[in-house]
Protein backbone atom coordinates (compact mmCIF):
# COMPACT_ATOMS: atom_id res chain seq x y z
CA UNK A 1 0.00 0.00 0.00
CA UNK A 2 1.30 3.41 -0.94
CA UNK A 3 0.95 4.90 2.54
CA UNK A 4 2.66 1.95 4.31
CA UNK A 5 6.08 3.69 4.43
CA UNK A 6 4.50 6.78 5.97
CA UNK A 7 2.80 4.66 8.63
CA UNK A 8 6.05 2.81 9.38
CA UNK A 9 7.81 6.15 9.78
CA UNK A 10 5.03 7.43 12.04
CA UNK A 11 5.21 4.36 14.27
CA UNK A 12 9.00 4.59 14.50
CA UNK A 13 8.76 8.23 15.61
CA UNK A 14 6.57 7.17 18.54
CA UNK A 15 8.23 3.87 19.45
CA UNK A 16 5.34 1.69 18.28
CA UNK A 17 6.97 -0.20 15.39
CA UNK A 18 5.92 -3.54 16.89
CA UNK A 19 2.37 -2.99 15.69
CA UNK A 20 3.45 -4.09 12.21
CA UNK A 21 5.57 -7.03 13.42
CA UNK A 22 3.22 -9.57 11.80
CA UNK A 23 2.19 -7.45 8.83
CA UNK A 24 3.82 -9.69 6.23
CA UNK A 25 1.86 -12.70 7.56
CA UNK A 26 -1.51 -11.08 6.91
CA UNK A 27 -3.77 -11.31 3.88
CA UNK A 28 -4.94 -8.17 2.09
CA UNK A 29 -8.13 -7.54 4.13
CA UNK A 30 -6.23 -8.08 7.39
CA UNK A 31 -3.50 -5.67 6.31
CA UNK A 32 -6.09 -3.05 5.42
CA UNK A 33 -7.85 -3.48 8.78
CA UNK A 34 -4.64 -3.13 10.75
CA UNK A 35 -3.46 -0.06 8.84
CA UNK A 36 -6.85 1.59 9.21
CA UNK A 37 -6.74 1.13 12.99
CA UNK A 38 -3.17 2.42 13.27
CA UNK A 39 -4.02 5.44 11.11
CA UNK A 40 -6.91 6.29 13.45
CA UNK A 41 -4.60 6.91 16.43
CA UNK A 42 -3.65 10.45 17.37
CA UNK A 43 -0.05 9.61 18.25
CA UNK A 44 0.81 13.10 19.49
CA UNK A 45 -1.96 12.90 22.07
CA UNK A 46 -1.23 9.25 22.88
CA UNK A 47 2.50 9.80 23.37
CA UNK A 48 1.78 12.63 25.81
CA UNK A 49 -0.65 10.41 27.74
CA UNK A 50 1.91 7.59 27.84
CA UNK A 51 4.43 9.93 29.44
CA UNK A 52 1.95 11.37 31.94
CA UNK A 53 -0.26 8.37 32.74
CA UNK A 54 1.63 5.16 31.92
CA UNK A 55 5.38 5.58 32.34
CA UNK A 56 4.67 7.65 35.45
CA UNK A 57 1.54 7.15 37.49
CA UNK A 58 -0.46 10.36 37.98
CA UNK A 59 -0.49 11.53 41.57
CA UNK A 60 -3.83 12.58 43.01
CA UNK A 61 -3.25 15.88 44.78
CA UNK A 62 -6.03 16.88 47.10
CA UNK A 63 -6.80 20.59 46.86
CA UNK A 64 -5.81 22.63 49.90
CA UNK A 65 -9.32 23.87 50.69
CA UNK A 66 -12.05 21.25 50.26
CA UNK A 67 -15.48 22.20 51.52
CA UNK A 68 -18.86 20.46 51.57
CA UNK A 69 -21.07 21.80 48.77
CA UNK A 70 -24.50 23.42 49.09
CA UNK A 71 -27.22 20.85 48.44
CA UNK A 72 -30.89 21.35 47.66
CA UNK A 73 -33.02 18.97 49.78
CA UNK A 74 -35.13 16.27 48.14
CA UNK A 75 -38.23 17.78 49.69
CA UNK A 76 -38.63 21.41 50.75
CA UNK A 77 -39.47 21.97 54.40
CA UNK A 78 -40.65 25.59 54.63
CA UNK A 79 -43.17 27.69 52.68
CA UNK A 80 -40.52 29.70 50.84
CA UNK A 81 -38.73 26.54 49.65
CA UNK A 82 -42.04 24.93 48.66
CA UNK A 83 -42.84 27.97 46.52
CA UNK A 84 -39.34 27.95 44.98
CA UNK A 85 -39.61 24.25 44.11
CA UNK A 86 -43.07 24.73 42.62
CA UNK A 87 -41.71 27.54 40.46
CA UNK A 88 -38.74 25.43 39.33
CA UNK A 89 -40.99 22.48 38.55
CA UNK A 90 -43.23 24.67 36.40
CA UNK A 91 -40.15 25.99 34.59
CA UNK A 92 -38.98 22.44 33.91
CA UNK A 93 -42.40 21.40 32.66
CA UNK A 94 -42.51 24.40 30.35
CA UNK A 95 -39.08 23.55 28.91
CA UNK A 96 -40.13 19.94 28.30
CA UNK A 97 -43.37 21.03 26.64
CA UNK A 98 -41.40 23.35 24.32
CA UNK A 99 -39.09 20.54 23.18
CA UNK A 100 -36.05 21.99 24.93
CA UNK A 101 -35.09 18.77 26.74
CA UNK A 102 -33.44 15.58 25.48
CA UNK A 103 -32.51 12.35 27.24
CA UNK A 104 -29.06 10.76 27.04
CA UNK A 105 -28.33 7.24 28.26
CA UNK A 106 -24.81 5.83 28.45
CA UNK A 107 -25.27 2.23 27.34
CA UNK A 108 -21.93 0.97 26.08
CA UNK A 109 -21.60 -1.85 28.60
CA UNK A 110 -22.21 -5.56 28.25
CA UNK A 111 -24.01 -7.84 30.66
CA UNK A 112 -21.06 -10.20 30.97
CA UNK A 113 -20.51 -9.61 34.70
CA UNK A 114 -24.18 -10.39 35.26
CA UNK A 115 -24.08 -13.68 33.36
CA UNK A 116 -26.07 -12.08 30.53
CA UNK A 117 -25.00 -12.41 26.90
CA UNK A 118 -25.76 -9.09 25.28
CA UNK A 119 -25.79 -5.33 25.86
CA UNK A 120 -26.64 -4.51 29.46
CA UNK A 121 -29.59 -2.41 28.32
CA UNK A 122 -31.26 -5.56 26.96
CA UNK A 123 -31.19 -7.23 30.40
CA UNK A 124 -34.70 -8.14 31.73
CA UNK A 125 -35.09 -6.34 35.06
CA UNK A 126 -38.73 -5.85 36.07
CA UNK A 127 -40.64 -7.91 38.63
CA UNK A 128 -43.60 -9.21 36.62
CA UNK A 129 -43.17 -8.59 32.89
CA UNK A 130 -39.38 -8.92 32.79
CA UNK A 131 -39.00 -5.75 30.76
CA UNK A 132 -35.53 -4.79 29.67
CA UNK A 133 -33.75 -1.71 30.97
CA UNK A 134 -34.18 -0.12 27.55
CA UNK A 135 -37.94 -0.75 27.63
CA UNK A 136 -38.27 0.77 31.11
CA UNK A 137 -36.58 3.96 29.93
CA UNK A 138 -38.45 4.03 26.60
CA UNK A 139 -41.81 3.78 28.35
CA UNK A 140 -40.82 6.58 30.71
CA UNK A 141 -39.96 8.80 27.78
CA UNK A 142 -43.12 7.88 25.90
CA UNK A 143 -45.20 8.71 28.99
CA UNK A 144 -43.33 12.01 29.38
CA UNK A 145 -44.04 12.91 25.76
CA UNK A 146 -47.73 12.14 26.22
CA UNK A 147 -47.93 14.14 29.44
CA UNK A 148 -46.30 17.27 28.01
CA UNK A 149 -47.30 16.99 24.36
CA UNK A 150 -43.77 17.31 23.03
CA UNK A 151 -40.98 15.12 21.68
CA UNK A 152 -38.14 14.22 24.05
CA UNK A 153 -35.42 12.94 21.69
CA UNK A 154 -33.41 10.07 23.11
CA UNK A 155 -29.67 9.78 22.43
CA UNK A 156 -28.34 6.29 23.15
CA UNK A 157 -24.58 5.96 23.47
CA UNK A 158 -23.47 2.47 22.53
CA UNK A 159 -20.00 0.97 22.14
CA UNK A 160 -18.49 -0.38 18.95
CA UNK A 161 -18.94 -3.89 20.36
CA UNK A 162 -22.68 -3.58 21.07
CA UNK A 163 -23.87 -0.91 18.64
CA UNK A 164 -25.38 -3.20 16.01
CA UNK A 165 -26.92 -5.52 18.61
CA UNK A 166 -28.50 -2.56 20.39
CA UNK A 167 -29.93 -1.12 17.18
CA UNK A 168 -31.34 -4.51 16.24
CA UNK A 169 -32.93 -4.94 19.69
CA UNK A 170 -34.78 -1.64 19.33
CA UNK A 171 -35.91 -2.48 15.80
CA UNK A 172 -37.15 -5.94 16.82
CA UNK A 173 -39.21 -4.31 19.59
CA UNK A 174 -40.62 -1.52 17.39
CA UNK A 175 -38.68 1.03 19.45
CA UNK A 176 -41.07 0.32 22.34
CA UNK A 177 -43.63 2.71 20.87
CA UNK A 178 -41.25 5.61 20.30
CA UNK A 179 -40.83 7.22 16.89
CA UNK A 180 -37.58 5.76 15.48
CA UNK A 181 -36.63 9.18 14.13
CA UNK A 182 -36.45 10.45 17.73
CA UNK A 183 -34.09 7.71 18.94
CA UNK A 184 -30.51 8.35 17.86
CA UNK A 185 -27.67 5.91 18.42
CA UNK A 186 -24.00 6.85 18.50
CA UNK A 187 -20.92 4.91 19.56
CA UNK A 188 -18.44 6.11 22.15
CA UNK A 189 -14.80 6.45 21.29
CA UNK A 190 -11.98 4.05 22.04
CA UNK A 191 -8.42 4.31 23.27
CA UNK A 192 -5.63 1.77 22.72
CA UNK A 193 -4.75 -0.42 25.70
CA UNK A 194 -1.12 0.11 26.72
CA UNK A 195 1.46 -2.13 28.34
CA UNK A 196 3.09 -0.66 31.42
CA UNK A 197 6.16 0.22 29.31
CA UNK A 198 3.99 2.33 27.01
CA UNK A 199 3.46 -0.04 24.07
CA UNK A 200 0.12 -0.31 22.30
CA UNK A 201 -1.08 -3.91 22.65
CA UNK A 202 -2.23 -6.12 19.83
CA UNK A 203 -5.42 -8.10 20.44
CA UNK A 204 -4.76 -10.08 17.26
CA UNK A 205 -2.03 -9.90 14.67
CA UNK A 206 -4.29 -7.65 12.60
CA UNK A 207 -6.10 -5.82 15.37
CA UNK A 208 -5.19 -3.43 18.17
CA UNK A 209 -6.41 -3.93 21.72
CA UNK A 210 -8.97 -1.19 22.25
CA UNK A 211 -10.95 -0.11 25.30
CA UNK A 212 -13.87 2.34 25.63
CA UNK A 213 -12.84 5.87 26.57
CA UNK A 214 -15.16 6.08 29.61
CA UNK A 215 -18.56 7.63 30.24
CA UNK A 216 -16.97 11.05 29.83
CA UNK A 217 -16.33 9.98 26.25
CA UNK A 218 -19.99 10.67 25.57
CA UNK A 219 -19.18 14.38 25.22
CA UNK A 220 -16.74 14.19 22.29
CA UNK A 221 -18.86 11.37 20.83
CA UNK A 222 -21.91 13.63 20.80
CA UNK A 223 -20.00 16.12 18.66
CA UNK A 224 -18.20 13.57 16.49
CA UNK A 225 -21.41 11.69 15.65
CA UNK A 226 -23.43 14.77 14.74
CA UNK A 227 -25.77 14.27 17.72
CA UNK A 228 -24.84 17.66 19.16
CA UNK A 229 -25.66 19.29 15.84
CA UNK A 230 -28.96 17.39 15.80
CA UNK A 231 -29.79 18.77 19.25
CA UNK A 232 -29.15 22.31 18.05
CA UNK A 233 -31.35 21.74 15.00
CA UNK A 234 -34.19 20.51 17.23
CA UNK A 235 -33.79 23.41 19.65
CA UNK A 236 -32.70 21.18 22.55
CA UNK A 237 -31.01 23.20 25.30
CA UNK A 238 -30.88 20.72 28.21
CA UNK A 239 -29.65 17.13 28.29
CA UNK A 240 -30.89 14.72 30.95
CA UNK A 241 -28.03 12.24 31.46
CA UNK A 242 -28.25 8.83 33.13
CA UNK A 243 -26.56 5.44 32.96
CA UNK A 244 -28.14 2.28 31.66
CA UNK A 245 -27.91 0.11 34.78
CA UNK A 246 -30.40 1.97 37.02
CA UNK A 247 -34.10 1.23 36.28
CA UNK A 248 -35.33 3.45 39.12
CA UNK A 249 -33.88 6.61 37.56
CA UNK A 250 -36.31 9.31 36.53
CA UNK A 251 -35.21 9.85 32.95
CA UNK A 252 -36.61 13.39 32.74
CA UNK A 253 -37.31 15.19 36.02
CA UNK A 254 -39.07 18.58 35.62
CA UNK A 255 -37.98 19.80 39.07
CA UNK A 256 -34.31 18.99 38.45
CA UNK A 257 -34.38 20.55 34.99
CA UNK A 258 -36.13 23.63 36.28
CA UNK A 259 -33.69 24.18 39.16
CA UNK A 260 -30.78 23.76 36.73
CA UNK A 261 -32.26 26.21 34.22
CA UNK A 262 -33.15 28.83 36.83
CA UNK A 263 -29.57 28.74 38.16
CA UNK A 264 -28.10 29.21 34.68
CA UNK A 265 -26.04 26.09 35.37
CA UNK A 266 -23.82 24.28 32.89
CA UNK A 267 -23.94 20.93 34.66
CA UNK A 268 -25.91 19.74 37.69
CA UNK A 269 -26.15 16.49 39.60
CA UNK A 270 -28.41 14.48 41.84
CA UNK A 271 -26.85 13.31 45.09
CA UNK A 272 -27.52 10.65 47.71
CA UNK A 273 -26.62 10.70 51.40
CA UNK A 274 -23.95 8.04 51.78
CA UNK A 275 -24.74 4.89 53.75
CA UNK A 276 -21.34 5.01 55.44
CA UNK A 277 -18.19 7.17 55.19
CA UNK A 278 -16.37 4.95 52.67
CA UNK A 279 -19.31 3.94 50.47
CA UNK A 280 -18.07 3.46 46.93
CA UNK A 281 -19.59 6.65 45.57
CA UNK A 282 -17.73 9.73 44.42
CA UNK A 283 -17.89 12.60 46.92
CA UNK A 284 -19.29 15.97 45.90
CA UNK A 285 -17.14 18.81 47.24
CA UNK A 286 -16.58 22.49 46.61
CA UNK A 287 -13.11 23.61 45.55
CA UNK A 288 -12.43 27.26 44.72
CA UNK A 289 -16.16 27.88 44.48
CA UNK A 290 -16.75 25.12 41.91
CA UNK A 291 -18.44 21.78 42.48
CA UNK A 292 -16.13 18.82 41.95
CA UNK A 293 -16.12 15.09 42.64
CA UNK A 294 -13.39 13.37 44.64
CA UNK A 295 -13.31 9.60 44.24
CA UNK A 296 -14.08 7.60 47.39
CA UNK A 297 -10.60 6.05 47.20
CA UNK A 298 -8.97 9.50 47.08
CA UNK A 299 -10.86 11.16 49.93
CA UNK A 300 -8.63 10.94 53.02
CA UNK A 301 -10.09 9.41 56.16
CA UNK A 302 -9.94 12.67 58.08
CA UNK A 303 -12.44 14.09 55.60
CA UNK A 304 -14.41 10.91 54.93
CA UNK A 305 -15.11 10.36 58.65
CA UNK A 306 -15.50 14.02 59.67
CA UNK A 307 -18.84 14.70 61.35
CA UNK A 308 -20.89 17.71 62.39
CA UNK A 309 -22.11 18.34 65.92
CA UNK A 310 -25.25 16.31 65.21
CA UNK A 311 -23.18 13.29 64.12
CA UNK A 312 -23.91 13.54 60.39
CA UNK A 313 -21.06 13.29 57.91
CA UNK A 314 -19.59 16.55 56.66
CA UNK A 315 -18.90 15.02 53.24
CA UNK A 316 -22.09 13.07 52.82
CA UNK A 317 -23.08 13.77 49.21
CA UNK A 318 -22.53 10.72 47.01
CA UNK A 319 -22.46 10.82 43.21
CA UNK A 320 -24.92 8.51 41.39
CA UNK A 321 -24.34 9.59 37.76
CA UNK A 322 -27.61 11.45 37.23
CA UNK A 323 -27.02 14.84 35.62
CA UNK A 324 -28.46 17.67 33.61
CA UNK A 325 -26.08 19.33 31.16
CA UNK A 326 -26.68 22.48 29.18
CA UNK A 327 -25.92 22.03 25.51
CA UNK A 328 -23.72 25.12 25.54
CA UNK A 329 -21.36 23.51 28.04
CA UNK A 330 -20.95 20.38 25.91
CA UNK A 331 -20.25 22.62 22.92
CA UNK A 332 -17.61 24.54 24.88
CA UNK A 333 -15.89 21.40 26.18
CA UNK A 334 -15.70 19.79 22.72
CA UNK A 335 -14.96 22.85 20.59
CA UNK A 336 -12.60 22.11 17.73
CA UNK A 337 -13.16 18.37 18.00
CA UNK A 338 -10.99 17.96 21.11
CA UNK A 339 -12.32 17.34 24.61
CA UNK A 340 -11.23 19.23 27.69
CA UNK A 341 -11.96 16.39 30.11
CA UNK A 342 -8.83 14.80 31.61
CA UNK A 343 -7.95 11.14 31.23
CA UNK A 344 -7.69 8.70 34.13
CA UNK A 345 -5.72 5.48 34.30
CA UNK A 346 -7.17 2.07 35.18
CA UNK A 347 -4.99 -1.06 35.35
CA UNK A 348 -6.71 -4.12 33.83
CA UNK A 349 -6.07 -7.63 32.56
CA UNK A 350 -5.96 -7.32 28.77
CA UNK A 351 -5.38 -10.35 26.50
CA UNK A 352 -2.69 -9.66 23.91
CA UNK A 353 -0.41 -11.08 21.24
CA UNK A 354 3.20 -11.34 22.42
CA UNK A 355 6.39 -10.89 20.40
CA UNK A 356 6.27 -14.54 19.30
CA UNK A 357 2.76 -14.18 17.95
CA UNK A 358 1.21 -16.17 20.80
CA UNK A 359 -1.97 -15.11 22.54
CA UNK A 360 -1.51 -14.38 26.24
CA UNK A 361 -4.35 -14.34 28.77
CA UNK A 362 -2.96 -12.49 31.82
CA UNK A 363 -4.12 -13.35 35.33
CA UNK A 364 -3.02 -10.03 36.79
CA UNK A 365 -3.27 -6.45 35.50
CA UNK A 366 -0.87 -6.01 32.62
CA UNK A 367 -2.17 -2.91 30.86
CA UNK A 368 -3.29 0.65 31.42
CA UNK A 369 -6.62 1.75 30.04
CA UNK A 370 -7.30 5.46 29.63
CA UNK A 371 -10.77 6.85 30.19
CA UNK A 372 -12.64 10.09 30.85
CA UNK A 373 -15.23 10.62 33.58
CA UNK A 374 -18.35 12.69 33.01
CA UNK A 375 -18.21 14.28 36.46
CA UNK A 376 -14.94 16.01 35.56
CA UNK A 377 -17.08 18.48 33.62
CA UNK A 378 -18.61 19.81 36.85
CA UNK A 379 -15.77 22.18 37.86
CA UNK A 380 -15.78 23.48 34.28
CA UNK A 381 -19.35 24.67 34.76
CA UNK A 382 -19.85 28.23 35.99
CA UNK A 383 -22.80 27.17 38.14
CA UNK A 384 -24.03 23.77 39.33
CA UNK A 385 -27.10 22.62 41.23
CA UNK A 386 -26.85 19.62 43.54
CA UNK A 387 -30.27 18.15 44.25
CA UNK A 388 -30.64 15.43 46.83
CA UNK A 389 -32.81 12.48 45.87
CA UNK A 390 -34.11 9.46 47.76
CA UNK A 391 -32.33 6.14 47.35
CA UNK A 392 -35.58 4.17 47.39
CA UNK A 393 -37.08 6.43 44.74
CA UNK A 394 -34.30 6.72 42.22
CA UNK A 395 -31.23 4.55 42.73
CA UNK A 396 -30.84 0.79 42.58
CA UNK A 397 -28.30 -0.13 39.89
CA UNK A 398 -27.64 -3.59 38.51
CA UNK A 399 -23.86 -3.91 38.59
CA UNK A 400 -23.09 -7.30 40.16
CA UNK A 401 -24.29 -10.86 39.71
CA UNK A 402 -24.73 -11.34 43.45
CA UNK A 403 -24.94 -9.27 46.63
CA UNK A 404 -25.54 -5.54 46.74
CA UNK A 405 -26.30 -3.74 43.47
CA UNK A 406 -27.40 -7.02 41.89
CA UNK A 407 -30.57 -7.95 40.04
CA UNK A 408 -31.91 -9.43 43.29
CA UNK A 409 -31.53 -6.17 45.21
CA UNK A 410 -32.79 -4.15 42.25
CA UNK A 411 -35.98 -6.24 42.01
CA UNK A 412 -36.47 -5.85 45.75
CA UNK A 413 -36.11 -2.07 45.47
CA UNK A 414 -38.43 -1.80 42.46
CA UNK A 415 -41.12 -3.71 44.34
CA UNK A 416 -40.51 -1.64 47.47
CA UNK A 417 -41.01 1.60 45.55
CA UNK A 418 -44.20 0.26 43.95
CA UNK A 419 -45.43 -0.68 47.40
CA UNK A 420 -44.74 2.81 48.75
CA UNK A 421 -46.54 4.45 45.83
CA UNK A 422 -49.57 2.23 46.34
CA UNK A 423 -49.61 2.72 50.11
CA UNK A 424 -49.47 6.50 49.64
CA UNK A 425 -52.57 6.16 47.45
CA UNK A 426 -54.40 4.31 50.20
CA UNK A 427 -53.96 0.75 48.95
CA UNK A 428 -53.26 -1.93 51.55
CA UNK A 429 -49.98 -3.60 50.61
CA UNK A 430 -49.17 -7.02 52.16
CA UNK A 431 -45.86 -7.27 53.97
CA UNK A 432 -43.84 -10.07 55.52
CA UNK A 433 -42.41 -10.27 59.04
CA UNK A 434 -39.40 -8.15 57.97
CA UNK A 435 -41.62 -5.44 56.53
CA UNK A 436 -40.83 -6.29 52.90
CA UNK A 437 -43.61 -6.20 50.31
CA UNK A 438 -45.04 -9.73 50.15
CA UNK A 439 -46.11 -9.59 46.51
CA UNK A 440 -44.50 -9.02 43.10
CA UNK A 441 -45.71 -5.60 42.00
CA UNK A 442 -44.80 -3.77 38.80
CA UNK A 443 -46.16 -0.37 37.77
CA UNK A 444 -45.81 0.54 34.10
CA UNK A 445 -44.39 4.02 33.47
CA UNK A 446 -47.19 4.33 30.91
CA UNK A 447 -49.64 4.32 33.82
CA UNK A 448 -47.74 6.57 36.21
CA UNK A 449 -44.39 8.33 36.37
CA UNK A 450 -44.70 9.12 40.07
CA UNK A 451 -46.78 8.42 43.15
CA UNK A 452 -49.03 11.43 42.60
CA UNK A 453 -49.99 10.35 39.10
CA UNK A 454 -50.60 6.80 40.30
CA UNK A 455 -52.97 7.96 43.02
CA UNK A 456 -55.02 9.84 40.42
CA UNK A 457 -55.28 6.86 38.08
CA UNK A 458 -55.75 3.85 40.35
CA UNK A 459 -58.92 1.82 39.83
CA UNK A 460 -61.22 1.88 42.88
CA UNK A 461 -61.19 -1.09 45.20
CA UNK A 462 -57.75 -2.37 44.24
CA UNK A 463 -56.66 -5.19 46.51
CA UNK A 464 -53.34 -7.04 46.61
CA UNK A 465 -52.98 -10.46 48.21
CA UNK A 466 -49.80 -11.99 49.68
CA UNK A 467 -47.79 -13.79 47.00
CA UNK A 468 -49.79 -12.23 44.16
CA UNK A 469 -48.22 -10.96 40.93
CA UNK A 470 -49.63 -7.53 40.15
CA UNK A 471 -48.97 -5.58 36.97
CA UNK A 472 -50.55 -2.15 36.70
CA UNK A 473 -50.70 -0.48 33.30
Describe the structure.
The chain is an alpha/beta fold and 473 residues long. It has three domains: 1-40, no CATH class; 42-395, Spore Coat Polysaccharide Biosynthesis Protein SpsA, Chain A; 400-473, no CATH class. Helices cover 31% and strands 19% of the residues. The chain has helices at 4-13, 28-39, 43-54, 79-97, 133-148, 163-172, 218-225, 227-234, 254-263, 301-304, 327-333, 391-394, 407-424, 451-457, and strands at residues 101-106, 154-158, 183-187, 190-192, 194-195, 202-204, 207-208, 210-212, 238-243, 267-273, 283-287, 290-294, 317-326, 343-348, 352-353, 359-360, 367-372, 386-388, 440-443, 469-472. The chain has a seven-stranded mixed β-sheet with strand order 3-2-1-9-13-10-18, with helices on both faces. It has a three-stranded antiparallel β-sheet with strand order 5-17-14, with helices on one face. It has a two-stranded antiparallel ribbon with strand order 4-8. Helix 13 (407-424) crosses helix 14 (451-457).
Write a compact overview of the structure shown.
By secondary structure, the chain is of the alpha/beta class. It has 14 helices and 20 strands.
List keywords for this structure.
473 residues, alpha/beta, Spore Coat Polysaccharide Biosynthesis Protein SpsA, Chain A, 3 domains, 3-stranded antiparallel β-sheet, 19% strand, globular
Number of helices: 14
Query: Helical content, roughly?
Result: 25-40%
Determine and state the CATH class of the largest domain: Alpha Beta
Proportion of beta-strand residues: 15-25%
Q: Quick one: how many beta strands? A: 20
Which structural category do the helix and sheet elements fall into? alpha/beta
CATH topology of the largest domain: Spore Coat Polysaccharide Biosynthesis Protein SpsA, Chain A
Instruction: Report, as a whole number of angstroms, the end-to-end distance.
Output: 61 Å
Major beta-sheet overview: 7 strands, mixed
Could you tell me the radius of gyration in angstroms?
24 Å
- Average pLDDT value? 96
User: What strand line-up does the widest sheet have?
Assistant: 3-2-1-9-13-10-18
Instruction: Give the second-level CATH assignment, the architecture of the largest domain.
Output: Alpha-Beta Complex
